[in-house]
Amino acid sequence: MKTKDCSQYFEKIQHEIHINSAKLVELDQAFGDGDLGISMDQGFTAVNEFVKNCKEEDFGKFFMKISKVFNESAPSSLGTILSFGLMGMAKRLNGIENATLNDFQEAFIAGVDNIKEKTGAKLKDKTIIDSLEPAVSAFRRSDNLKEALHFASEAAKNGMEETTKLIAVHGRAAYHKEKTLGHIDGGAYVSYVIFKAIAND
Questions:
Q1: N or C, where is the chain less crowded by C-beta within 10 Å?
Q2: What residue segments make up the domains of the chain, in order of their start?
Q3: In the structure, how many helices (H) and strands (E) does the chain have?
Q4: Which helix (H) or strand (E) holds 177?
Q5: Which pTM was predicted?
């Protein structure tokens, strides 16, 4: 895969985030400031436009530039967190101009690891990690791209749904403790929407 081939995926993500922006606002209003849908929509819209016109062929530099665009366009804590993920991917893909499925499988792991390192979040903390980490793990279960993406999408959905059983320990939601039970974590929902989009599930 070349960097130019990524445009279709970012376009799909932007579309799904946009049509789910109201849902993200609703989820965020429960224990946050209610701007999650707006910031994610702004961030992925900016990235989609950037990617369409980007001529960079090195995947490392490509994702590092995307990380910067997203961080600047999605003014929220999750915007910063996803930027960490993109930075982690960029480091793993540095110097690669024709990426294989295995390259992306390893890059996704590097992205999740960077988020965990930078934020201190781990599984069962009721964050994006609860959807993202299972998805990235499932993405490694096949050497067929379409099948791997389907596995990742299913795992992301299951992980997102499992956050209803968890108590938040990070961010504003942590102040509400047990009240967060029964609620889907907004970040986990974003992860699910991303994988659903690129898998076309």
A1: C
A2: 3-199
A3: 9, 0
A4: none
A5: 0.95
SS3 per residue for 96-116: CCCCCHHHHHHHHHHHHHHHH
Given this model, what pLDDT does residue 33 score? 77
pLDDT of residue 50: 97
Taken in order 23, 79, 159, 178, the sign of the CA dihedral is negative
Tell which CATH architecture fits domain 3-199.
Answer: Alpha Horseshoe (1.25)
CA 28/CA 52 separation, integer angstroms? 30
Per-residue pLDDT, averaged over 135-139, amounts to 98
CA 177 – CA 168 distance, rounded (Å): 6
Of residues 73, 101, 2, the one with CA closest to residue 65: 73
Closest CA to 113 of 130, 88, 96: 88
Helix axes 77-93, 36-53, angle to 10 degrees: 30
pLDDT in tens, 8-38: 999 999 999 999 999 999 998 888 778 999 9
pLDDT at 14: 98
∠ CA 139-145-150, nearest 5°, is: 55
Q: Are 69 and 61 in contact (CB under 8 A)?
A: no
Q: At residue 71, does pLDDT exceed 90?
A: yes
- pLDDT value at position 34? 81
